[in-house]
Design a protein that fits this description.
The structure is a single chain. A seven-stranded parallel beta sheet has the order 8-7-6-11-9-12-10. α7 runs parallel beside α8 and α7 runs parallel beside α12. It starts with a strand and ends in a 6-residue tail after the last helix. It is built from twelve helices and twelve strands. 31% of the residues lie in helices and 21% in strands. It is an alpha/beta fold. The longest helix is centred in the middle third of the chain and has 13 residues.
């Protein structure tokens, strides 16, 4: 039976998880097994459910119960489904971007680096990419462009932050990802080499190969390493990599936003020789 609960007041405690808990509080670093995240929009919630994430509660406009969110509601009958007037819900920051549906969900235990690398051919590695918009956009490109998994250093923004999920259009649930130990990718490079990966640092150096260099396409396994906006990759990571690569530019432009650069790199390096 569907458990519909009407919310009349924005200060209702049932709205705390959606309106008043910070991303850090939702993440719950001290007890990660109790961590939560918020998925927004029917399509994104469906993708999270398909990936096996457990819903805790739903919050949606009344009209969506039998409308756009009908499929989600049918799959979430055993949890509280909160609904309220539009005027109440619009007090939630960014509510108009959610297509009228929010779902609080439990985080899952992350896979190990080995589990992601096993059988993978192309891996993306993010070093200190702290902007959740960039993280979400990179993961969306990775999922779309034949990348098998994503590894992040500890200082990267969490892929299950609301903005990252929204920008990724839920692809954070469709491609495996996990964290490396440390604040640079260098320790991860050592691990990746144990799994047979050649490592490619995207960096603006005079000795960098062009992205379309034929030798890159011939590599069976590649790990593509991208750094933070502005600072780029650490010297230690670049020095530990097998290749340093740059995207050819024109009109005097020296670099792209890291999310745009990732899409170009994944498109070129994700293709097999002869494609």
């Amino acid at each position: 039976m569907i458990n519909i609960i009407e919310i009349k007041d924005f200060s209702a405690p049932e709205l705390d998880v959606y309106a008043r808990l910070t991303e850090g509080q939702l993440l719950n670093r001290h007890e990660p097994e109790k961590g939560l995240f918020i998925a927004e929009s029917p399509k994104v919630v469906e993708r999270a459910l398909d990936a096996g994430y457990t819903p805790v509660s739903l919050l949606l406009e009344r009209k969506h119960i039998l409308g756009e969110a009908r499929g989600v509601v049918e799959r979430c009958q055993d949890i509280p489904i909160y609904t309220a007037d539009f005027d109440v819900l619009t007090q939630l920051t960014g509510f108009q971007l959610t297509r009228g549906v929010l779902c609080a969900m439990r985080r899952k235990k992350l896979p190990t680096v080995g589990e992601i690398c096993e059988g993978a051919r192309r891996i993306a590695v993010l070093e200190n990419v702290m902007n959740p918009t960039n993280v979400g956009a990179i993961i969306r490109s990775a999922a779309a462009l034949d990348i098998d998994g994503v590894l992040l250093t500890e200082n990267c923004s969490n892929p299950l932050y609301r903005r990252a999920i929204r920008v990724s259009m839920g692809t954070v649930f469709q491609i495996p990802w996990t964290y490396l130990e440390g604040d640079t990718a260098k320790p991860g490079i050592v691990c990746l080499k144990e799994y047979g990966f050649q490592t490619v640092s995207m960096a603006l150096r005079e000795d960098s190969l062009s992205l379309d260099d034929p030798k890159l396409a011939k590599e069976e396994k590649l790990a593509i390493i991208l750094g933070a906006e502005g600072d780029g990759l650490s010297d230690a990571t670049i020095e530990a990599s097998d290749y340093t690569v740059r995207i050819p530019m024109s009109h005097g432009v020296d670099s792209l936003n890291v999310a745009a650069a990732s899409a170009v790199a994944f498109w070129q390096l994700g293709r097999r020789t002869g494609q």
